[in-house]
Amino acid sequence: MSLWSGENSLDPEFLGRARERGELVRLIEIPVPKRDKNGIFDRGSSVKLSPTELVLQAEAAIKDNFGHPIRAFIERLAAKPESHTQQATALMEKFLQEVGAGDDPWTRRFAGKFAVVYAGARLAAEFGAAPWPKNHSLKCVVRLYQRAREVVVTPEEALQDLLHKLATSSTDRFAEFKKGEQPARLKKAAWGVRSKARNGTQFLAVESSRLDRLVRPAHQAARVRKLLIAGGYTVPGKEGRHVRQIKVEGFGSTEKPYFVCVRLDRLPEQKNRK
Questions:
Q1: Closest among 233, 243, 237 to 265, alpha carbons compared
Q2: DSSP symbols for 164-182
Q3: pLDDT for residue 269
Q4: Can you say whether residue 67 is alpha, beta or left, with left for phi > 0 and alpha for psi between -120 and 50 degrees?
Q5: What's the pLDDT score for residue 179?
Q6: Rounded to an integer, what distance in angstroms lies between the CA atom of residue 137 and that of residue 228?
Q7: Whether residue 259 has pLDDT greater than 90
Q8: Which residue from 159, 238, 165 is spatially nearest to 197, judged by alpha carbons?
Q9: How far is CA 71 from CA 65, 78, 99, 211, in A?
Q10: Which of 24-38, 80-94, 159-173, 175-189 holds the top average pLDDT?
Q11: CA 103 vs CA 20, 153, 162, 181: distances in Å
């Protein structure tokens, strides 16, 4: 198993062919943050040293300490192999629960690689072989896992995630709206409005640009839109258009902004209630 972090994403254009799901578990990509003036030191806003000075300090620290922490770690680990094995297993299971790996075999395989890293980082802190607090490693490894998981999300998985978001937010993120009404300007937290077509079909009208921001990962937004249409999840607009213009205040700068209308009866939680 390997972790990858580089300038080029491990996509078909770079590799020359589409990667299989099994390969994605063996060579896991962790995307680097967007470039800025500080380079890899993207979270050092309060540090006044230049990136070059920080690199030199990091290289000097690595040279002085290389090999010492791992020896201390292994010495402590080997002192009580059975108890530490049990502790590591429990930590790995805790991580899998934290990230919601569930019972899906592929997801557990993917998340399991990060669970090993978390268990090692937590034990290293407890042994005094690492300079971070023992409770610090979980949030760091979870953040790395989430970045890596987003890279390999399929359009179908992104669609299901979007539908789940809409279902769980159908009440608090969507105000009731009827044609002819002039509701008060909506809060920025709203994603759209609830309404129904002439034939009585109820739908959630998601403001078009907001829909793209709800899709995770963002690069799958266009594919998710196509899946919504192909799967019959949407209520088409005039002349079969994939969006509708609805005159409602609070969205965009135009009088009648564009909305993608998702059928309420096609959302997962709504179907389960029937």
A1: 233
A2: HHHHHTTTTSEEE--TT--
A3: 67
A4: left
A5: 60
A6: 38
A7: yes
A8: 238
A9: 11, 11, 31, 51
A10: 80-94
A11: 20, 17, 21, 47
- Tokens in use for 132? 């971070």
The rounded percent of the chain whose pLDDT value lies above 90 is: 50
* Count of other CB atoms within 10 angstroms of residue 20: 9
Is residue 64 within a helix (H) or strand (E), and if so which, with residue range?
Answer: helix 51-65
pLDDT for residue 227:
96
Give the integer Cα–Cα distance in Å for 37 and 258: 37
Distance between CA atoms of 110 and 162, rounded to whole angstroms? Answer: 22
Q: Determine the number of helices (DSSP H) and then strands (DSSP E) in the chain.
A: 11, 7
In a 13 Å sphere around the CA of 108, the CA atoms on its Cβ side amount to: 8
Q: Measure Cα distances from 233 to 40, 207, 219, 223 in Å.
A: 42, 16, 20, 14
Model's pTM, two decimal places?
0.66
Side chain identity at residue 105, one-letter code: P
Beta-carbon neighbour count of residue 215 at 10 Å? 21
DSSP code string of 99-150: TT-TT-HHHHHHHHHHHHHHHHHHHHHHHT-SSS-TTTHHHHHHHHHHHHHH
| Phi, psi angle pair for 260, to nearest 5° | -100, 120
In whole angstroms, what is the distance from residue 269 CA to residue 274 CA? 9
For residue 13, the model assigns a pLDDT of 57
Give the Cα separation of 248 and 246 in Å (integer). Answer: 6
Residue-wise pLDDT for 18-74, tens only, equals: 566 777 788 888 877 666 667 777 777 777 888 889 999 999 999 999 999 999 999
- Partners of 259 in the β-ladder: 207, 244
